[in-house]
Amino acid sequence: MSSIAQPLSMTPWKQGVKDAIPLLGGYIPVAISFGLISVQSGFSVLETILISTFIYAGASQFLFVAMVASGAPLWLVIIMTLLINARHVVYGPNLAPYLTKDARWGPLMHGLTDQIFAIAHTRLPQMPSESRIGWYTGAATLAWLSWIGGTALGAIAGDELMQRWPLINEVLPFALPALFFVLIVPRCNNLQWTVTIAGAAASAMLLKVFGFPNIAIPAAALCGALAFYALKFTGKPGAHS
After folding, report:
1. Given CA atoms 12, 122, 137, 23 in this order, what sign does their dihedral have?
2. Which of 12, 34, 71, 171 is the most exposed place for a label (fewest CB within 10 A)?
3. Which residues contact 226 (CB under 8 A, 6 or more apart)?
4. CA-based radius of gyration for the chain
5. pTM across the whole model
6. Ranges of each domain in the chain
7. Chain segment 158-174, per-residue pLDDT in tens
8. CA distance 221 to 199
9. How far apart are CA 233 and CA 241, in angstroms?
């Protein structure tokens, strides 16, 4: 994606925080859910918060807690966690062209989540290279702290929240899908991306409806990729922004 770099209207760190604020609507509810589930699975409040602080891997944390609670061997827990996070192997090369030669980028990648990748891949090309590390630090730090805070809230007061407001339990499963939806909609600004996203979504839904939920997501991703490159190489009008 090529973009002309534009100067930021505020300091890079503040701009990063501002751009990441919409993520909180998805992060905090899911983190609350994780905190509650972790404590119910036998982990202490402190252990639960440390998991979110150091593992910080969304779905992998739920798997980690479930496998440990069921008595799975440590080596299997580690392998499964790494497999779920293997998508970061794709994230890295896509962000690499926009990263400066600064040693701080290495440890900062602890804050790279699916959502941070999505906004970083859009925003980093649009800003001067000297502003990128500050922007990323602000965005990733806010997301990380919100995840830790939500986890702590769920671990400490999750049961009481669910009892007082039962509707929360019904809403939580939709928080993260809604967040991803908000992140991908701005991509539908040309034919190529619109067909790609619509095709992937339709494929996933059809596979789910016809009884193939386990392959729905990877198969949909493949269909979306095929549609993207088919339009790219056929050069359909309006396929590129």
Report:
1. positive
2. 71
3. none
4. 19
5. 0.73
6. 12-187, 188-241
7. 778 777 777 766 776 67
8. 9
9. 15
